Amino acid sequence: MSDESANPASPFEGFDGEEPRRRYRWVIPVVIVALLAAAYAGLAWWLSDRVASDATVAGVPIGGLSHDEAHQRLETELGAVTEQPISVRIDDVSATIDPGPAGLQFDAAATLEGLTGFSVDPRVLWDRLFGIGAVEPVTAVDEEALRAELELVNQDIERAPVEGFITFSGTTVVVTEPEDGLQLDLDGAAALVSADWLTEPHPLELPGQTLEPGIGEEAVQEARREYAEPLVAGPVTIEAGEQEAELSPATLAEAATFVPNGAGLRLELAADQLAEALVESNPDIETAGEDARIVLTSDGPEIEPATTGTGVDPELLAEGVREAITADRRRAVVELTEAEPEFSTADAEALGVNEEIVSFSTPIPYDPPRTANLRRGAELLSGTLVRPGEIFSLTETIGPFTLENGYVASGMVSGGFATEGIGGGLSQVSTQMFNVGYLAGMELVEHRAHTRWFDRYPRGREATVVAGSLDMRWRNNTEYGVMIEAWVNDEGMHTRLWSTPVWEVDDWISAERDITQPGTEYNPHPQCVAENPHYHGFTVDYGRTVTDRESGEVVLDEVRTHTYRPWHRVICGSPPSPGGGDSRNGDDGDSGGNDNNGDD
């Protein structure tokens, strides 16, 4: 073998002496970097649960605190703040907003998000080491709820503008100066409260909107200068035909009104009021016309035509005054015009008072005072016109039942007993008017039958009257007028209605039933009139069917029932002592009220 094979090489042969040194030069930097990285990571870990040292939220310091400590402090201090009302102000008016109903909430967890937690971002570590200052709080806002609360605030704050205006106190011009109004700028206020409610000092100054009046200072002064002061500067003379009259400053001021007209004021004059004042100043300026009249003649109702008069047209008068107050002479010439009546001939014709639609009669007993009352009642009834839809009232038409109104004392019933009173017998007038209204198909409004039956009246279908407490009334339920005619003669009392037929009426009265016999009563009244038993008591039904003549439709089918008490024997004086004398027998009494004031 050769020497090479006999002497193997060393394991370290082939390594250059410089090579190990080159390799170890890399190890040191790597170790240093690793150490630095570990230190950086350790610092990041140490800072991960600490808030930056100078951090504050809405003035609450949380620097250096752990996440949980910071959360607890924010909940404690800012949570309490969010439960307190927020004071706000606009102009010189203060109010408060309750954060709860306004939908304002503070979110502590969201506010702390990113302030803690592991991060190797050098910017984050820098902030955590050297501070971040004020941190903006995270809040939640329910915009709809906040706006609703601000609208409530606006109700306290809102001030309507004062419109410029002119009035008169007597002949003195009174000016209302215009003033701006104020209201909350809801959009601006909502944005401000949302952003600042937790961070800015209270009260929060809310933005407002100025509301300008529609009638400003310039318009008011112009109206005062051009119209108000000239109006009351002196009287205005009116020439109408050959007549003259003056309207005084006081009259002109009383009739004047200033009304808004765009951005200005317009003078308006009460034309009818001026016309009335003009006629009062000189009655010869107008000649009155006469309304049409429907009068009763021997041939029935006839129309007396209306007549026109002459007078000043109110609107032309007002226009003349407006022009005169700015003229040098303060004088106006107004033409006379025809003055139409309030109730024209055509109006009278349209009422259709053309023919007799119903009549009714009842006999009268021989009793001159009573008959005198009936004649007076008939006199007041005749010619009465009941217009469509109106209610006929007996007491309003023929009352009051007094000596001054032409009535005399006669027999009547009071408290169920015969006596005397002024207007005795007028229940016969009431019965007459009840029956013509009933049989003509009119709507019954008020009536009451007697407590005892008088045989001159239909059973049940009659009516008494008590001044001040009981009337006899029916409504004209047609489109035509109804005229009443009434008279008294030896045969009895008669009434008829004139109109245009609208209703067909079928009426009926039943036989008597539930008979009760008379008894005896005692009447201690000083004006007592003794009575003998006259007629029994009974119950009766009566009814009517009302049909529309034109359509044939039944518009009313009614049945009424009334019970009469007997005509008892009446003894004037107090009842005898118990055990002696007569007593009442078989009478259930009446209501205790007067049958009428002026009754049979």
TrEMBL record:
<protein>
    <submittedName>
        <fullName>Putative peptidoglycan binding protein</fullName>
    </submittedName>
</protein>
<feature type="domain" description="YoaR-like putative peptidoglycan binding">
    <location>
        <begin position="135"/>
        <end position="188"/>
    </location>
</feature>
<feature type="transmembrane region" description="Helical">
    <location>
        <begin position="26"/>
        <end position="47"/>
    </location>
</feature>
<dbReference type="InterPro" id="IPR007391">
    <property type="entry name" value="Vancomycin_resist_VanW"/>
</dbReference>
<keyword id="KW-1133">Transmembrane helix</keyword>
<dbReference type="Pfam" id="PF12229">
    <property type="entry name" value="PG_binding_4"/>
</dbReference>
<dbReference type="InterPro" id="IPR052913">
    <property type="entry name" value="Glycopeptide_resist_protein"/>
</dbReference>
<keyword id="KW-0812">Transmembrane</keyword>
<keyword id="KW-0472">Membrane</keyword>
<dbReference type="InterPro" id="IPR022029">
    <property type="entry name" value="YoaR-like_PG-bd"/>
</dbReference>
<feature type="domain" description="YoaR-like putative peptidoglycan binding">
    <location>
        <begin position="265"/>
        <end position="330"/>
    </location>
</feature>
<feature type="region of interest" description="Disordered">
    <location>
        <begin position="568"/>
        <end position="600"/>
    </location>
</feature>
<dbReference type="Pfam" id="PF04294">
    <property type="entry name" value="VanW"/>
</dbReference>
